[in-house]
């Protein structure tokens, strides 16, 4: 029994009977849908606003369509289109944690700027603070001048996507007699390929996962670079 007079705490959650992932194709498909939702929502909002005679407040890039499979259709109700905001910047409305490290999710309108300042530089600063590694500061000074070159061919295609943020194999599972799920997120709106870099860093994901994901969101130029 819990002691109500103690200084401890308790978290009561629903029990889910979990097992290792077997339906990797479903996981890849669902993750792609998650990543596509915000961009497709923005496109549908533009259409709805034009139908009711209002000038669109924002415009998706003309070449956005080339980054997704044309057969993808997400069923988004008019109620959601009207009441859910399309996110046009990179970041999140609050800090989230990757492991025990709080992430700087301050908003930026440019992915390269967000990635450099809020992800890479934050890690550099932690390394310097915790390990007094000054050499990495020199490397960082050089890298800052080259970051944009990694995105030079695709920068106009990068749209904010809602990410899990820490998608390694320890944060995915499957519910018995149901489908795969992801948990323990460090969410923010970012470049969808950021998500896949983490999944590949630690391994453990079936090729079926990537095949299904890329059938909806094809690899962009320079993905393997």
From TrEMBL:
The keyword Transferase applies. One of its GO terms (molecular function) is kinase activity. PANTHER family: FRUCTOSAMINE 3 KINASE-RELATED PROTEIN (PTHR12149), PROTEIN-RIBULOSAMINE 3-KINASE (PTHR12149:SF8). This is protein-ribulosamine 3-kinase. It catalyses: N(6)-D-ribulosyl-L-lysyl-[protein] + ATP = N(6)-(3-O-phospho-D-ribulosyl)-L-lysyl-[protein] + ADP + H(+). Gene3D superfamilies: 3.90.1200.10. It comes from Euroglyphus maynei (Mayne's house dust mite). Keywords: Kinase, Transferase. Signal peptide: none annotated. Pfam families: Fructosamin_kin. Its EC number is 2.7.1.172. InterPro entries: Fructo-/Ketosamine-3-kinase, Kinase-like_dom_sf.
